[in-house]
Amino acid sequence: MLAVLAYHRVGKGKHSNSLAMLDAHFGYIKRNFTTLLPGESYRGCTRSICLTFDDASFDFYYYIFPLLKKYAFKALLAVPTNYILEDTALSVEERLSVPYTMAMQEGIFEVKAPFCTWKELEEMVLSGHVEVAAHSHLHCNLTFPFVDLEREIIQPKKMIEARLKQTVTSFIYPFGRVSKAAHRYVMTHYHYAFRLGFGYNFSWECQKRALKRIVCDQLVSPEAPFRLSAHLRHLFKSLI
Q1: What DSSP state is assigned to residue 93?
Q2: Which among 38, 60, 65, 235 is least buried, having the fewest CB atoms inside 10 angstroms?
Q3: What is the reported pTM?
Q4: Which residue range forms the structural domain that includes residue 133?
């Protein structure tokens, strides 16, 4: 079985974990699991984890990237391309000060640079610890009928590949939401697609159904996603 874990930000709030909690959590994973990227073989390794982080907020570069290097982990970073600036001279404090709920607002992201820049993404990709996934262009809910699927699905792939010289094989659905039509369209351009939904995966195959991700925001303990009660719940969800 393959567990794909989903995280958002470092800090306080609904979509966050403290840096201390994530450090302890990663330490637990290091002692008990192997981290993989999409498509990598987990045969012969029964305790495999794929780490995924949504939105490419600047705190990923500032806090998580050093942790990935510390623990020799690999992670998949979901990038909504509309909000990525080439570079910035703003201070760390100013960039980290933008609330999660405001970061994508027009007039905020251009001025406050709350997301990773292309320069920072390039550094992380070159390190070998980070692989970039498309996370749409405008971070739209792709189940809405008025969404331009070509813009949201194809454009980010082209932008990332042109700027980072990395082939983009994964798409992570914004808000974890996906329709059958959107998934069919995604799978004509990507090898892997991910949604939210507690449960394990039995392979990387996802043509018919997107891969499940276990939400790991607001952890109550470093080992919380792996406790017996959580394991049984994830296993049950995997079978239905």
Answers
A1: H
A2: 235
A3: 0.94
A4: 2-238
